[in-house]
Amino acid sequence: MDFDEAANHLPGEWQVRSDSAPPGIKPRGTALLCDQMGTMWVAYTSDGLWKWSAGKWEAIPIDTVTYANSLGMDAKGQLYVGGTDSFWRCDHDGWHRYRLPAELQGT
């Protein structure tokens, strides 16, 4: 199954197809990103970060992330995951946490 078969574009949002969502996880994520390698990354508000690659889902543990609300990738292919009080960056050394200033936490 590729990206087009695993996700639907609804007006204004992407949604993982219910028949291809991770086991026990609701299909509507808070953010969805497809990288240059064809891997689909999905952030969930209560289930953290998941990756779809080679036809299977994998939960990606990141520190204390259970609430992920945004995803991004830079030109180097580093993945960024936003949460309520921090964001995380993944590079060749693993995950790095950056705390948001107090006035931005919870936004």
Describe this structure in words.
The chain has a single domain, classed as Neuraminidase (6 Propeller). It is 4% helix and 45% strand. It has one helix and ten strands; from the N terminus they run H-E-E-E-E-E-E-E-E-E-E. The chain has one helix at residues 3-6; strands at 7-10, 13-16, 31-34, 40-44, 48-53, 56-60, 70-73, 79-82, 86-91, 94-99. Strand 8 (79-82) and strand 9 (86-91) form a beta hairpin. It is globular and about 40 Å long.
Brief write-up:
The chain is mainly β and 107 residues long. It is 4% helix and 45% strand. It has a single domain, classed as TolB, C-terminal domain (Neuraminidase, 6 Propeller), CATH 2.120.10.30.
Low-confidence stretches: none
Name the structural class: mainly beta
What's the SSE pattern? HEEEEEEEEEE
In angstroms, what separates the terminal alpha carbons? 35 Å
Q: Class in CATH?
A: Mainly Beta
Strand order, biggest sheet? Answer: 3-4-5-6
Fraction of residues in helices?
Answer: under 10%
| Outline type | globular
